[in-house]
Structures are given as structure tokens and as C-alpha cells.
Amino acid sequence: MTFNPFFHESYRVIDFRALSDEESAVTLEVPDHLIDITCTTGSYTVYLPPVASAQGHMYVFYATDGTGDVTVADQDDSIGWTDLHLDETDDCLVLMSDGRHWLPLYSNLSA
């Protein structure tokens, strides 16, 4: 997957291999729009920013290397949210906030 260079300042790489066992979760900030995930083992969680703060923002998750399980979770602040999982290489997810909901715009998830 090739990322748009215009979004280079909002590009965030999360390499769960570099985290200790105590660091099993990462919370995104509003400007983190492109999230490149590497998770080869274990289970981790990526928390979305607050849904109201992220209104109008789109988030692209891409698993560049994955056999572990990465859960994308909200902060218990959006209506009708169900956690999503990226657990295979090339899993992809695009979400957008309308201020009250996290709207899945695209998903290519193996599970």
C-alpha cells in the first residue's frame, strides 16, 4: 500500500515488537490519520481518539506485518461501536468520525 505523501505529518508507525509486555495499548491522537501497524505476536489494542474531538477526521489502519491480534477500540464514547481486529498481513480499515459514531468506510479484514 502506498500512502499519500501529503499526509506525511499525520503518518504514525506502530511497531508492537518494540513495546514491552506492560505496553499492550496505544491511544491515538486526533492528527494520527495513517496508522501502519506491525504486530507479529501477542494481543494489543489501539484506542481511537475521542469520537467528538475527531469529528470529520478519517483514520486508515494498515497491517504491514501481522500474525498477532490488534484490536481497534473506541474510548466507550461512540454510539453502536463494536471493536475490530487486524490479525493478518495486509488487513486494512478506514474509519471516520461524525462526532457521535465511528463509521467504517472500508474494511479488508481477514476475520
Report on the architecture of this protein.
The protein has one domain: Jelly Rolls. It is 0% helix and 44% strand. It has no helices and 9 strands. The protein has strands at 11-15, 25-27, 34-39, 43-47, 58-66, 69-73, 84-86, 92-97, 102-108. The strands form 2 sheets. A 5-stranded mixed beta sheet has the order 1-3-5-8-9, with no helix packed on it. Strands 2-4-6-7 form a 4-stranded mixed beta sheet, with no helix packed on it. A hairpin with a 4-residue loop joins strand 8 and strand 9. The two termini are 20 Å apart.
What is the topological layout?
Blueprint: E1 11-15, E2 25-27, E3 34-39, E4 43-47, E5 58-66, E6 69-73, E7 84-86, E8 92-97, E9 102-108
Parallel strand pairs: 1-3, 2-4, 3-5, 4-6
Antiparallel strand pairs: 5-8, 6-7, 8-9
Content of β-strand: 35-45%
Q: Low-confidence runs (pLDDT<50, min 5 residues)?
A: 1-8
CATH topology heading:
Jelly Rolls
Q: Biggest sheet, open or closed, and with what strands and sense?
A: 5 strands, mixed
The count of strands amounts to 9
Broad structural category: mainly beta
Features:
single chain; 111 residues; mainly beta; Jelly Rolls; five-stranded mixed β-sheet; disordered N terminus
Concise overview:
The protein contains no helices and nine strands. The protein is mainly beta.
